[in-house]
Amino acid sequence: MSVARTSPRPDPETEVKVCGLNACLAVFAQRRKDIIRVYATSSRVPQIGELLSWCAESRRAYHVVPEADLEKITQSQHHEGICLLTRRAETPKFGFFVGRERLATGPRCLVLLENVGNPHNLGAIVRVAAHFGAHGILLAGDSPSLSPAVYRTAEGGLEYVPVIRIGDPVAAVATFREAGFTSIATSSHTGGKLGTTALPEKTLFLLGSESEGLSPRLLDATTQCVRIAGTGAVESLNVATATAVLLAEYRRVHPCG
């Protein structure tokens, strides 16, 4: 154990700082070999004994630092007393991912996000996707990188749901249609009501930014639209909340396991 007051800047292409207890424990559970260094406050040490023991056994550096120093290391006040410097998880190539989904049997649910630029929304969507067992998230357009904020907000979900950046979302929808997926967009005004509209076993949900929604060409490429019914008192749901409603209904129709 040592004290560190500075932290080397990670290579954004290959490394990331992950903070938040659940996010860090998920990295430790799923891919501990990728952990490079651990920072924690003294108050967090009792909850991460197994992680620190592993660090000592595997000769991974770990540092117990004051709260103020951890804020500097993470550049955030929302670190929850722990930060990992870790290698980024390998992301499956788009072609491989499509091939896997084409061959998969049983219920398969994917989410495509277009221009969802807020990292906290993306993190919340990843968390929801992990909770409901979605098999992947596709990012198109102006979408954020998988930053520390996304990792923290996802609460460990990034260790269970692959997030794949794609080029042309219309081409991706066509590719997944050939793989047996029905693409379903959401709309505040048109389409069948969610809960009365059939959700096929292989479903690709499409969601856009809260301000603009889906682009017209992507909306035209979808198979159908569904409407999340509400009081009408507000225009629509937050995109992460809408994703949760969609995936919850999908899992009601197609239970996990």
Question: Overview of this structure, please?
Answer:
With 257 residues, the chain is an alpha/beta fold. The protein has two domains: 15-87, 2-Layer Sandwich (60s Ribosomal Protein L30, Chain: A), CATH 3.30.1330; 94-253, Alpha/beta knot, CATH 3.40.1280. The radius of gyration is 20 Å and the shape is elongated. The protein has helices at 21-31, 49-58, 67-74, 94-103, 119-132, 148-154, 169-178, 216-221, 239-253; strands at 15-19, 35-40, 61-64, 82-87, 108-114, 136-140, 163-165, 182-186, 192-193, 202-208, 224-227. Helix 5 packs parallel to helix 6 (148-154) and helix 5 (119-132) packs parallel to helix 9 (239-253). The strands form two sheets. The chain has a seven-stranded parallel β-sheet with strand order 7-6-5-10-8-11-9. A four-stranded mixed β-sheet has the order 1-4-2-3, sandwiched between helices. Helix 5 (119-132) links the parallel strand 5 and strand 6 (136-140). Mean pLDDT is 92; it is low at 1-5.
